[in-house]
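Next comes the chain:
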Amino acid sequence: MSSAESVAPEPDETGDPRRPSWFYTFGRLALAPLARAVYRPRVEGKSNIPRTGAVIFASNHLSFIDSIAIPVAVAPRPVHFLAKSSYFEGRGLQGWLSKVLFTAVGAIPVRRGAGQAALEALEQQRQILESGAAVALYPEGTRSLDGRLYKGRTGVAFLALQTGAPVVPVGLTGTDKVMPVGARVPSLRQRVTVRFGEPLELSHHGPASSGKARRTATDEIMAAIHALSGQELADAYNESPAQSPMEKIKRALPHERR
């Protein structure tokens, strides 16, 4: 999600989203082996994945396919992330397949909104973590269109400091070649590499209520991701151009990007 986009949780018709539904189980059994056979992903550092307990996977973001690569690499452990509710609401066979795909990779539907909605999305992720489950998040907020690694927003650090969940940094390479931005069909000629770093315990930065703690914890997370991905650093936030003079002024002022 970009900084201009926020989401509000959409009720899950299958019940508690933290408990795997039959859709999730079916999708994982059907899609994970297929994805492994087709893309032959290289998975490094899998021993760094905690087998139980709350954990946040914080990854760079290069392609739509990232949200498939991470759950496949983490398997058999379920992992959840937020996705646009429109992916779950399509009609006919295509809509059904979309719902199966996103449910299979642990997506939880959310609606776009404004203001309080972004905080409500963070609250839903907090509840998932406090249930002992795993979530996957992209600190950059949205996909990198030029392949560089952008500055992280502080939402991931806020969740980690608030819940005490460790953060496992993830470095993805090759996903932008499998499915570049704008492509409708993934390439079958590319291989993906998923690297998991050692879990980060961030409480030494301070409480979640501290802006400085959130910022320094975020910088530690992004440094770990950079070490795994090897991307060029952008030293800027990944966001669309400001559309109004007021937005330009707001972005020029020093503040956190949550």
